[in-house]
Amino acid sequence: MRLADLTERAGEWLRGAGPMHDVVISSRVRLARNLAGMPFLGRCTAQQQREIEERISREALTAEIAADMFYVDVAAAGELDRQLLVERHLISRQHAQGDQPRGVAVSKDETLAIMVNEEDHVRMQSLRSGLQLREAFADLTRIDDRLETRLDFAFHSRYGYLTACPTNVGTGMRVSVMLHLPALKMTGQIDKVFRAVRDMRMEVRGLHGEGTEATGDFFQISNQTTLGKSEEQILEEFLDRTIPNFVDYERRAREALLRRPVAVDDKAHRAMAILRSARRIGSEETMYLLSMVRLGANMGRLKDVSIKTVNELFLMTQPAHLQRVLQREMDAPQRAEARAAYMRKRLSLN
Amino acid sequence: MKKQCDKCGKPASVYLTEIVGGEKIEKHLCEDCACAEGITIKANVPISQLLEDFILQSGEDEPESKCDVCGLTFSEFRQSGRLGCPNDYDAFAKELQPLLERAQEGASQHIGKVPHRADSSQKRQTAMLRLRAQLKDAIAAEDYERAAVLRDQIRELENT
Lengths: 350, 160
Hints:
heterodimer; A: alpha+beta; two-stranded antiparallel sheet; globular; B: mainly alpha; 45% helix
C-alpha cells in the first residue's frame, strides 16, 4: 500500500452510507495521548522527537491494529502529498505544516489514522460514513487498549490523560460529526442552529477542522468538554440529542421546501447544468454547486446521479487530488480548467 | 418585529421575564447588556478564544512559577498555550484551575477511562521525566559517562 494508491478511490467515510446519511456525512472520534515520562512535543529535544516517532510508528505497525497499516513519513513527504492527506482527513493542517519529525499510520480502508507528533505524541482517529460514532469509538478503544499494552501513556488520577493543551485533558476525546445542512441554509435558519450549538457547549467548524470556514453548507460539530464526563457520556450527548436534533431540523426544512419544490428543483438542476457544461470552475463554486446537487439527489429531485458519486466529486476536485488524478502539477487557473473538464466527464449523460 | 434592547437600543436577543413581588417584568436585552447585567448567556466561546483570553490576561503581580521538571515557566505557557510536560499539571495546578474550569464546564476531575497498566504510577512517570531532563543536561555538558548511566536508568523504568 502506497500513498499514490490512495487517489484511486475515496475513503470509507465518503461512501455516502450509514445511519442518517442524508444529513450526516461522517463521524469521527479522536483520542489524544502522550508517552509517560516524556516532555510534551514543544519541550522535546529533536532527538526525543525522533525517538517518539520511531517508537510509536513501530508499535502502530506491529500491534496488529488493522490489516495493511502503512506509515507515511509526513516530514519527508512533498507538499502535494501532505495536502492530499489533509483533503482525505487523515492528517490535520497543523500536522501538514509542522517542521518536527512526524508522520501518520493509516489503515488500508482509511477508517483509522494515527498521527504521530502532532500537538500530542499520539492522536488516533476513527472516521466512518454516516452516524457511526459508537462503531468509531469501539475501534479506537480497541487500538488504545492494544497500544497501552506496549506503551505507557501519561495519566493523572485527577486530570486523566494528560495533553499538551489543557483543553484536551481528561478523556483526550474529541467527537466530530460532519453535517450537510443545505435546507437550513436555504430557509435562513442556520444562524439559529449555530446559536443552539454554542448553547450546548459544542463547536462548529468547517470541512477541514479547526480554524477553517464552513463552506458549501458543510458543518462540523464537535464537543468542547473533555474533562469531567466519561467517554460514554460524551457519545450519548451526540447520539441521543445533538445529532438527531440537527437531522430532524434539516429534514423538516427539506420537507418545507418540498411544499413548493420549484425552488429546490431550480437550484439543483441549475447546479447540475453548470457542472455539466462549465469550462472553468474554482473549488469554492464547485463545493456550492455540488452541495445543491447533493440536496437534489437526497430529496429525489435529481435522478441521474448517486450520492456516492457526488461525495467522491467533493474529494476528487480538491486541489491536491485533482493534480494527483491528472498526474501533473497545476496552478489555480489550470486547475479551474482541469476541474471543469473532470466534472464534465464524470457527470456526462452518456 | 424584532425588539430593541432596553438599555442601548441595539437589536435584542435575550427576552427575560421576571416575577418580582408578584409583578411580571419583561426585559429585552442585547447580548452585551445581558452579560453586563450578570445574565450569563455567553455560556460558550470557542476553545481557541478561551485560551487566547486566558493567555492575554495580565499576570504581572504574580510571582513567576516554574516547573522544576521541564523548566517551563507559567508565562511561557501563557505565550504558547502549550504545556511542557505532564508534571506541569501539578506544578501549575493553582494557575490552571480557572482555565480548566472555564474550558471544561467547571469540571476538574477525570471520570473517564483509566489505563489498564497498573504500574503507570505518577511517581514513576515523574521520575522518568526528571531522568530525561538530567540526560539532556548531561549530553549538553558532554558528560557521556553520566549520560550512559541515566539512559540505563530510563530504560529500566520503561521496562518495569
